[in-house]
Design brief:
By secondary structure, the protein is of the alpha+beta class. It folds into five domains: about 190 residues, no CATH class; about 90 residues, Sandwich (Tumour Suppressor Smad4); about 120 residues, Sandwich (Immunoglobulin-like), CATH 2.60.40; about 170 residues, von Willebrand factor, type A domain (Rossmann fold), CATH 3.40.50; about 110 residues, Tumour Suppressor Smad4, CATH 2.60.200.20. The chain is built from 14 helices and 37 strands. The chain has a six-stranded antiparallel β-sheet with strand order 2-1-11-10-7-8, with no helix packed on it. A six-stranded mixed β-sheet has the order 19-18-17-20-21-22, sandwiched between helices. It has a six-stranded antiparallel β-sheet with strand order 28-26-37-36-33-34, with no helix packed on it. Helix 5 packs parallel to helix 7 and helix 8 runs antiparallel to helix 9. The radius of gyration is 35 Å and the shape is elongated. The two termini are about 40 Å apart.
């Protein structure tokens, strides 16, 4: 089997495992209340299927069904441990990275959290990969699997993170990619690093390759053999052993079987060289040494990582200008609220309308006015909704610090500013309706008590309701430390409601249990900003940062002249600076959200994945030929298989029946295989390099027998006699059940 194809099969096995885990992960995710224990369970579920599928794949290919069950169980156990450990590590790194993020006052957390998720899944991949070495007691496979699984888990984890937060289908795609990366890199690293391998070139299991990974590798029919040739005629349970030493490889006779042959010479012990042909029973193996390619693996990893982190998924991290809200209360005059920050996250001051250029649907528009929100004179008041998580997990220092931070935020409100206050757990409670009375707000904030679950999306929606009918700057500022597990609203409906109402949502994630990707998505889609702090002590600084940023936004006003185009794409460019884009809908139009749950038929996917695994693994393991047949087992040729039904020419010229390329020892017309009176012969065409059969040079013609290996330059070609019956009278073909030759009528026994 070509190396690339083998890697592909491992990738498919892992991908099918990830797909099989999908519906169970979603079901648990929906039913569980969140927290570290849930994370451990989700990671373990992914590991069970990915590990089990990857390591049962090869055993199924060899029809070792009992061994496949054992390997699946072993891979699943490793996956459970790796998935749980990975989830724990990911949460720890998540918290550590968050301590740096909070200091930057709202830095987009995507890269940091993606790294944390990637490292967590790298542990899962490493555990699954290393378990392959433990299964066969091979230090080399343990190391290769550890490294390959870690790399694949990291890259797959980053892909999973980038896709899995948007919908159930992108979660399926993310798990598919995660399993694919783990399987592919386990195989890729092993293929690149292994020192030698044997390939079945004739007999049962033809095409299978076995890496030589141990100091003593057994060849036999036993399921525990390193080169397992189950069901092969004439092969003993432990037929032979390949020894790996510092200076090379050797083979020696084992127990049982019909002897060991190297290059058609019977032996008890022989040194092996690249290209040697080994025969054990009815099986022929091609031994090959390969160059290790660690540099290639390293380069591939760096290239993949650089592509992933330089792509469009991270393009938003460097933006210092953002449209936070549209105010269409004076339509067709459009007020655009814009946040412009410097490299340190501080507001840029002193800009005017001459510093910006705007387009709507590609058409330039004239800016009427540009001013700072907090400018004196005709300043419009802010309308804000403060939404606080009061679920049971917020008890103690969290809620104490949250109250203190909200009180500080209220004290920073300016004259005319309005705010409402909501607290949520199982339900959403309006602690104070929209008011200018800061003392009432402070009193209501001080009375918040903890207990219950987390109806996060319902709380966001009610916060939007409280400010949506006000003109000017409107925003919801929500604090949560966990996962939304109660309420009517989904994340899609909450985002739709805020977007439709032109209310930006600022989201503060507190602690390691938050779903950063989801909270960040809410903020990004609505024009707000996501902030994260691993501890409650960081809340005060975040609330102060939000207050400062909103007050220092610019209001850019212009008149739109277009009618009938509901979607308006607005481009705003700072002269000699960055550009930002956002769209709004003509007031008469509406938005439609997307939601959904796991359909019932999705539970068929694990079954389909298992069937797919068996389908991928159960390839044809033995080939039967009705006539003489040539199989090119090494070298680049125009075709790999050909029946000798007529004369077959071989050479470097592409007009030959089989073109042998990329080898200067091969002549234009090098050799020919012919059928003569039911027998087959090979003839050299008078070449200087010569043609060889079983390493003996051919002089003129040589009769071929089943299993002969023809050598032409660096090419090795295996001849198979074919099992079609021939007439004893005329040598013509006869059917297997026929007694008489259809050509001459001779009776054949």
């Amino acid at each position: 089997m070509p190396t690339l194809l083998k890697i592909l099969f491992y990738a498919l096995a892992g991908a099918l495992g990830g797909s099989a885990a999908w519906v169970f992960i979603l079901s648990l995710h929906t039913a569980a209340r969140g927290g570290l224990l849930t994370e451990l369970m989700l990671g373990a579920l992914a590991g069970i299927f990915i590990g089990g599928f990857i390591w049962s794949h090869e055993a199924i290919t060899g029809r070792q069904f009992q061994a496949a069950a054992k390997r699946a169980a072993f891979g699943a156990i490793a996956g459970i441990l790796g998935g749980a450990a990975g989830a724990a590590l990911g949460s720890t790194v998540f918290t550590a990275i968050g301590r740096f993020i909070v200091k930057s006052g709202g830095l987009n957390a995507s890269i940091g959290i993606a790294l944390a998720v990637g490292l967590g899944w790298a542990v899962l991949g490493a555990a699954v990969g290393a378990s392959g070495g433990i299964i066969i007691r091979s230090r080399e496979r343990f190391v290769y699997g550890l490294f390959g699984g870690a790399v694949g888990g990291f890259l797959g984890g980053v892909l999973f993170y980038s896709m899995s937060a948007t919908s159930i289908w992108s979660a399926l795609a993310g798990l598919f990619l995660l399993g694919m990366c783990i399987g592919a890199f386990i195989s890729l690293v092993e293929e690149a690093m292994v020192g030698a391998r044997v390939k079945v070139i004739k007999g049962r299991h033809v095409g299978r390759e076995f890496p030589i990974l141990k100091a003593l590798s057994s060849i036999g029919r036993d399921d525990r053999a390193d080169v397992c040739l189950s069901g092969a005629e004439g092969v003993g349970l432990e037929h032979a052993y390949i020894k790996k030493k510092k200076h090379g490889f050797s083979i020696e006779q084992g127990q049982g079987g019909t002897g060991v042959y190297v290059n058609h010479q019977k032996t008890d012990h022989a040194r092996l060289s690249n290209g040697d042909v080994i025969r054990v029973g009815s099986i022929m193996l091609l031994f090959s040494t390969v160059k290790k390619a660690a540099v290639v693996i390293g380069a591939l990893f760096l290239f993949s990582a650089s592509q992933m982190f330089s792509g469009p998924a991270w393009a938003g991290d460097a933006r210092s200008v953002k449209i936070t809200q549209f105010d269409l209360s004076g339509y067709p005059t459009v007020k655009t609220y814009v946040s412009i920050l410097d490299g340190n996250g501080k507001a840029v001051r002193g800009l005017g309308k001459h510093n910006v250029a705007m387009k709507e649907n590609g058409v330039p528009v004239r800016v009427k006015e540009m001013k700072v929100v907090r400018a004196s004179g005709d300043r419009e008041p802010l309308s804000l909704a403060l939404v606080i998580d009061k679920s049971g997990s917020m008890a103690g220092n969290k809620i104490t610090q949250a109250k203190a931070s909200v009180l500080r935020f209220i004290s920073l409100m300016e004259k005319g500013d309005r705010a409402s206050l909501f607290a949520f757990s199982d339900d959403v409670v309006e602690a104070e309706s929209l008011t200018r009375d800061r003392e009432k707000l402070k009193k209501s904030a001080g009375g918040i008590r903890t207990g219950g679950n987390t109806a996060l999306y319902d709380a966001i929606a009610q916060g939007v309701d409280s400010v949506q009918r006000r003109s000017g700057r409107r925003a919801v500022i929500v604090l949560s430390d966990g996962i939304s597990n109660r309420g009517v609203y989904t994340i899609e409906r909450a985002i739709e409601h805020a977007t439709k109402s032109y209310v930006s949502v600022y989201v503060i994630g507190l602690g390691e249990d938050v779903r950063t990707a989801r909270l960040e998505r809410i903020a990004h889609k609505t024009g707000g900003t996501y902030f994260f702090t691993p501890s409650a002590e960081g809340l005060l600084g975040i609330y102060e940062t939000i207050s400062r940023r909103i007050k220092n936004e610019y209001v850019v006003s212009y008149d739109t002249k277009q009618r009938g185009t509901y979607l308006r794409n607005v481009d705003l460019r700072i002269v000699r600076g960055p550009t930002t884009k956002r769209a709004y809908f003509q007031p008469e139009s509406s938005l439609f959200g997307a939601g959904g749950s796991v359909p019932g038929w999705a539970f068929l996917i694990p079954l389909v994945s298992m069937v797919g695994l068996v389908g991928v693994s159960l390839r044809n393991i033995e080939r039967q030929y009705s006539a003489g047949h040539l199989s090119i087992v090494s070298g680049r040729a125009s075709r790999k298989e050909i029946d000798v039904s007529a004369n077959v020419t071989l050479g470097r010229d592409e007009r030959n029946a089989v073109g042998l390329f990329k080898d200067n020892q091969v002549a234009q017309y090098h050799a020919e295989v012919r059928k003569i009176n039911g027998s087959y012969v090979v003839a050299d065409k008078g070449t200087s390099a010569g043609t060889y059969v079983n390493r003996n040079k051919v002089s003129g013609e040589r009769k071929l027998t089943d299993g002969d290996v023809i050598g032409i330059g660096g090419f090795k070609i295996v001849f198979s006699q074919g099992r079609q019956r021939t007439c004893s009278g005329c040598n013509g073909p006869i059917r297997g059940s026929s007694k008489f030759c259809p050509k001459c009528g001779t009776k054949n026994g």
